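During data preparation, a discrete fold description was generated, as reproduced here:
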Amino acid sequence: MTPDAQAERSGRQVHLRSAARSHTGLIRSNNQDSGYAGPNFLLIADGMGGHAGGDVASAIAVAKLEHLDRPDHGPDVLSTLEAAIMEANEAMAERVRSHPELAGMGTTTTALLRTGDRFALAHIGDSRAYLLRDGELTLVSHDHTFVQLLVDEGRITEEEAEHHPQRSVVMRVLGDVGSAPDLDLSMREAQIGDRWLLCSDGLSGFASFADIKATLAEIEDPGACADQLVELALEGGGADNITVAIGDVVDGPPSSLDAASGQAVGSVQINPHYATGAPGTENLPTEAIDVEAVTSELAPGETGKGAGTDADDAPTQETEPTRRERRRRRHQLPEDWGDEEDEQPRRGRLAAWIIGVLVLLLVVTAGWWGWNHTQSRYYVGAEQGSVALFRGINQDLGPISLGTLEEVSDVQLEDLSQFTRQRVESGIQRDTRAQAEALIDEFREEATANSGGQEESLSPRLREDGTDGADGPGEQTAEPTENEPDGGAGAEEDAQGLPAARTHPGEVLR
């Protein structure tokens, strides 16, 4: 006897009144989450592995598991759920084998499957399952993260875990991870009035436990409650994809409308080609296809998988307001519901624009300050053979020179010593114009001394020495004698027998 038959005989039959929502968030460029909510089945998959990895993995997980949303699983429902998850894991491995660029992709999986008046719960990763019962919210799943391992071992506290830099490191996932998935499996009682919440860490990581509990307790409609939970995560920063699935345990069999209202969200809904691997669709950009629009024209019972249509017969994709209106009517929401959704992308674009403007202003301010700082200084350099005064510094910034010619002096480089010329040609930096002009005056004095003649520059020094023309010991001035005129053959020899040097009056012997 099946669990549903047993429940019907006992007078109890339950189902889930459910809803699912997914949002890319305010930072991420694509949605790597996928989710599903139906009358018998809830599922959350948070993908990882980059732009073309995590979204594929999560889409495969939901596409391979959503067929479980039916009431006839028999007594061994836990094994059925586990086997289906293992098949999804193998499908991901096969996708990596055929598309090596997806190597390393994976996904968390948290699934709740009804059978009669009980639930089978399977979990791997850091997505979460919460149960609100009699006003109390309980975390039912256990995170498979490095930080949770530290908490379990008593090495850090729960409060420290919330801010740990490695809190997002997941230890166990489905996908291309090189080992068989190790699932947490359990059976749970289905109690009328319970509310189940399955969510990715985009909610649990950005909304407080107290706010999640208050929202679940106060908003009766599952769809409106899911929308508010997404809003909480966005208000908390929205730095990750956000996906939630809510299921209320209600009495009786599902209505025909509820039985057909299973809802897929996130990457699997936006990008069905990721789940099916249809040829020619591998390189389509994320968020390019809306499965709801694609399947809207199909007959009841058709899934759209493998359906072939000509280009002229392809269904026209609905606009966003049309899809929102259908959701609003389905869940009996207010007329203005969904207006906030339009604002979220605008907020993200506005925030990015503001940050860009601030960065640009910072760069411009730094450049302006640096330019002003360089232009408050001066240096002495060479300009067409003369000593010149420059403003700025003797450097170039690419094609931009940081030095500007202010004045060319009358000091010629050729009148300076070789050492001084080299200094000038290399540029001599000074903090102020006055210091630079004083340096040019020093060079002017040196040039004057070098070009004014040795007689004028050396005679004073000789007179001070008291040698009257001698530059030092062993040096003397020679005077012609009456008997031997200057240059005669009888020139006087020195002590070594060599002719004495002839000089003019006032010359220094070297």
